[in-house]
Design brief:
By secondary structure, the protein is α/β, with parallel strands linked by helices. The chain has 8 helices and 6 strands; from the N terminus they run βααβαβααααβαββ. This is Phosphoglycerate mutase.
Length: 223
């Protein structure tokens, strides 16, 4: 993928949802924000209130759209007042496992690959293979594999860089999801970040895109 513009991407994880507290797999499933989730959105909105965004994007999941709406409502520096919602920037699709208890799903996937727990599975094979394992163990094989996931996200990045409002030096807001942010850090973080520390709801992660197609992590899981 060729990134033609140099810009900073401010990635916010949506506020806490009911599926988050119930510990359910939540990729393309919608679950409303809790009261704490609304506070998460308000808190990060206040911290970003003086950042001038030239464009704003969000996953088309309602939890992300609501968080983006709150951020832009509080923003004092940007001319834009609405984020562009796109399915290209959703989190990973878990297929058959959508809505399943996280521990139960992780146990099934781990067991099918000879590991007793998910932690050992990740340590042995790395984050890249995990999406493939969910796809393989899905009885319908509808969960996204790693290639499908990144093909979609690359299209999302291309959509942003082709935005006429995004120019060299722009700041762009993106509201997305925990596993998506973790995948970005795994891919672009050069091993500098602890992947066992997952991004918190309402946290900020910053990426820098340059004109040569390089992506640099400027900060991860900032609260």
């Amino acid at each position: 993928m060729k990134i033609m513009k140099t810009f900073d991407l401010y990635i916010v994880r949506h506020g806490q949802t009911y599926y988050n507290i119930y510990r359910k797999m939540q990729g393309w499933s919608n679950s409303p924000l809790t009261n704490q989730g609304q506070k998460d959105a308000e808190n990060i909105a206040k911290k970003l209130a003086n950042i001038e965004f030239d464009a704003a994007y969000t996953s088309d999941m309602t939890r992300a759209e609501y968080t983006a709406e709150v951020i832009l409502k509080h923003n004092q520096a940007s001319k834009i007042n609405r984020a562009i919602a796109t399915p290209l920037l959703r989190g990973v699709f878990y297929g058959y496992y959508e809505g399943t208890n996280i521990d139960e799903a992780n146990h099934i996937v781990s067991a099918t690959h000879g590991e007793s727990n998910y932690h050992d599975l990740v340590n042995k094979y790395g984050q890249v293979k995990i999406k493939d394992f969910f796809h393989e163990s899905d009885p319908f094989h509808q969960a996204e594999n790693n290639d499908e996931y990144w093909q979609r996200w690359h299209k999302g990045f291309e959509k942003i860089q082709n935005d006429k409002n995004v120019q060299d030096g722009s700041k762009v807001l993106l509201v997305s999801h925990g596993p998506a942010i973790l995948s970005l850090i795994d891919r672009y973080g050069q091993g500098k970040y602890d992947l066992e520390k997952r991004p918190e709801n309402g946290s900020l992660t910053k990426l820098h895109f340059d004109s040569d197609g390089n992506v640099t992590v400027l900060g991860y899981n900032i609260k």
